[in-house]
Amino acid sequence: MNLLEILREPCPWYVAGPLIGLTVPILLIIGNKSFGISSSLRHICAMCIPANISFFKYDWKKESWNLFFVFGIFLGGVIAAYFLANPNPVEINAKLSEQLATYGITDHSGLLPKELFSWESLFTLRGFIMIVVGGFLVGFGTRYAGGCTSGHAIMGISNLQWPSLVATICFMIGGFIMANLILPYILAL
Amino acid sequence: MNNLENKNTDTEGINGSQLKDSGFSNLKYLIVGIFFGIVFVKAEIISWFRIQEMFQLQSFFMYGVIGSAVVVGIISVQIIKKFNIKTIQGEKIEIQPKVFSKGQIYGGLLFGFGWAITGACPGPLFAQIGTGVTVIVVTLVSAIAGTWFYGLIKDKLPH
Known about the structure:
The structure holds two protein chains of two kinds. Chain A is mainly alpha-helical. Helix content of chain A is 66%, strand content 0%. Chain A starts with a helix and ends with a helix. The model of chain A has no long low-confidence stretch (mean pLDDT 94). In chain B, 56% of the residues lie in helices and 0% in strands. The interface between A and B is large, with 137 and 133 residues. Chain B: Keywords: Membrane, Transmembrane, Transmembrane helix. Chain B: This is Transporter.
């Protein structure tokens, strides 16, 4: 197998996890920046629509590193998809595949199911909830919690901050409740 | 001048540096972001299917990713503190403490709901758009609207 073939294979957790963890010291050492991504959404608000809300009145330019970082994540997505794409469909758990099939979700060719996340789907009730309501909850919830998976679960816990552990446990509880108790009704719409 | 308001309750992604970043020096964050985005895609962390497997306890994968990331993060931060490692500009490394608020509970649960629906936290949204799923731009705009709405009603919420 040559290097490009290896890079095209999906990356195992024990490689991906430590690489993500290393982002913490890298950002600290190259410029004293604490890892966190959802803050970029706040900076975009401060930059585009501050609307005289005190929460958005600060010097966002000082935090513009965060916007460069997320733009990099976008470019990384482009590079991975166009140059390092895995030619095989996403391997998913057989039980999940069976469950999803009952809701008409059978396309596993991409990282997201096309039946849910596509422009056609957006104009259905199910798609609207998945795309618009889901996104709103992500933006509202992360800011209310003061961070997301990166800011709390990875950066906060790395610095042994117990409030971040509380936040992470709540992220997981919310996810378990939604995925197991509520999402089946949304998918059935 | 460090003036992110509510610094104590909301210190995520903060710039601890007192130095001014030029546009050019910001390029290094772009490069770190690119590597990060590639890992996101190649490990399929941005996959909606992986997130469903995680929340239905059908796969160890995401637990392995987050768990090993946290272990590496804890060790790194301890090393930085113990050896008093400085930034490449020679500054002392500052990490703001996280202060508890009820928002971490209420907001945390709401984000958990959104995470399980969209299969994405904020970082993966940017990578998903990059992979060509253009409709996720709508999810991102909606997440920005959610953040903005939080800013609007923040003082009326329990913290």
